[in-house]
Amino acid sequence: MLNSKALGLALSVLAGGVWFLMMGFSLLSGMGERTVMALGSYHPLFSYSFGGLIIIVIEHLIGGFIVGVIFAKLYNRFVNR
Predict the structure, then answer these.
(1) Cα gap 44→57, rounded to integer Å
(2) Residue 81 above 80 pLDDT?
(3) Would you say 4 and 65 are in contact if contact means Cβ atoms under 8 Å apart?
(4) Which residue ranges make up each domain of the chain?
(5) Each residue of 19-66: pLDDT tens digit?
(6) C-alpha distances in angstroms, 48 versus 7, 16, 29, 72?
(7) CB proximity list for 42: less than 8 A, separation 6 or greater
């Protein structure tokens, strides 16, 4: 049985951390700008700036938690049948 809060937190930190590292590296070095811009265009309020970095990390922290909790609840429901 999966702990929904633990999975939500783990996925949240993973998703937010990946974006923080990827976009932070891109902003500081200029490498991968086109890739980050292409992926970021699917996110609301995205801008290729340090303010946009904060917003997209917050979006992924929240979204990752929600997806993790929903996945764990569905997993537990189907495994217990």
Answers:
(1) 12
(2) no
(3) no
(4) 4-79
(5) 999 999 999 998 989 999 898 888 888 899 999 999 999 999 999 999
(6) 29, 16, 13, 33
(7) none
**Lookup result for tokens 């633990």:** 6
Sign of CA dihedral 78, 74, 5, 25: positive
Both structure tokens of 47 = 């801008």
Number of CB atoms found within 10 A of residue 55's CB: 17
Nearest-CA neighbor of 18 among 32, 3, 1?
32
Q: Environment class of residue 42 by beta-carbon count within 10 Å: exposed (0-12), middle (13-18) or buried (19+)?
A: exposed
Amino acid at 28: L
- Judge contact between 61 and 15, C-beta under 8 A: yes
Which tokens sit at 75?
């997993």
- Angle, vertex CA 43, rays to CA 38 and CA 49, nearest 5: 70
Q: Which two tokens stand for residue 73?
A: 């609840």
